[in-house]
UniProtKB/TrEMBL annotation:
BP GO annotations: proteolysis
Keywords, alphabetical: Hydrolase, Metalloprotease, Protease, Signal, Zinc
Family label: Belongs to the peptidase M16 family.
This protein's name: Insulinase family protein
GO molecular function list: metal ion binding; metallopeptidase activity
Domain of life: Bacteria
Residue ranges annotated for the Peptidase M16 C-terminal domain, each copy included: 190-367
Domain Peptidase M16 N-terminal: 36-175
Keyword Lipid biosynthesis: no
Signal peptide, first to last residue: 1-20
Organism: Flavobacterium arcticum
Amino acid sequence: MRKSLMALGSLLMLGGVASAQQVAFEEYDLDNGMHVILHQDKTAPVIITSVMYHVGSKDENPERTGFAHFFEHLLFEGTQNIDRGEWFKIVTANGGNNNANTSDDRTYYYEVFPSNNLELAIWMESERLMHPVINQIGVDTQNEVVKEEKRLRVDNQPYGNLIAEVKRNMFVNHPYRWATIGSMDHLDAATLEEFQAFNKKFYVPNNSVLVIAGDLDIDQTKKWVNQYFAPIPKGAPVNRKTFKEEPITETLHATYEDPNIQLPMVIASYRTPSMKTRDARVLDMISTILSDGKSSRMYKKIVDEKKMALQIGAFNYSQEDYGLYMVYGIPMQGFTAEDILKEADEEIVKLQKELISEKEFEKLKNIYESNYVNSNASVEGIASNLATYYMLYGDVNLINTEIDIYRSITREEIRDVAKKYLNPNQRLILDYVPAKDKAQN
């Protein structure tokens, strides 16, 4: 009884924190189509200025993959008013830091500065959009940088091609079928004019959202946004094709040999709906039940009790158009990939046939309450969430209300969604194994 009261108290406390942590924001559009979101937080003298562009690897020409990620690097080269090589020097000299990242769906740039450098940050991001210098020396320099990144993070990284291989075998029509980092041969073959055309098409105000968050004065910030961003011309509308994948109706099989590993891994991957759907959120919860932490179902049974796997996991890889639900495991010596899959499938079948217990359900809800609080615990996290909810979900206020969706998910939905998507005839089995020549050594 005491434990139940403590659990209830913890849940109420988390709920109180979540309610108290409502994120206030103001949003509006400039005449050139740029969407602007402002969030004031005076708790620390820090601001973040970020811009998310609705361009990712799915927007690339199949013969020129890697462009979106390439631009993540290229647009730090310099502008008409920021000399080549000076971008990072300006940021660090003013007590800031910056970075960027690319996904299949979008590209995100940001600077974090002491709040007295807000105008500088706004100016720098407007320069990236209004006056980028895209020339051959920049392209050649960043081509080598991207190749080195691929060597370090993909080619020479154990299991570095896992996601790419799953995607390649799971998608036939959709551009998700190629890796975000793209093909180095495609980048080598591209002309300067092709890079310039990509910039002209996607790096336009009406394909972006500007988020400024932190210790700011709203009125002054609006003046600077208008001063630096409003003069940028609106671009042509970005028209995207819709790519449809036919349902998977029988088990797919594939093998990939990785020279960087000594232990094989088996992956079972299921194609799932857009991250904007309710089912995608239910799948998030299913992955938590199955493999989040040492007390999760798969870990406790397969790793801890039966000692059949060195590692086991399940996660929902959600994206704008489709998602992938992946179960993976590394067998211990004496066990096979088939042994691991059999055990994992048994846990999935249990979810499909039996409602999870009320106790497990309460634990699950506590985890998502905590995740909600943590996701908005920093000004950087809030800025990223605001941009993402606007750009990929079409609803900025999900930063406050998405937790209500998770709260409303029922035990019956967990069972039904597992039945709907996680079946053997709807998946890819990928055997991710050591390269044969290495395995023989």
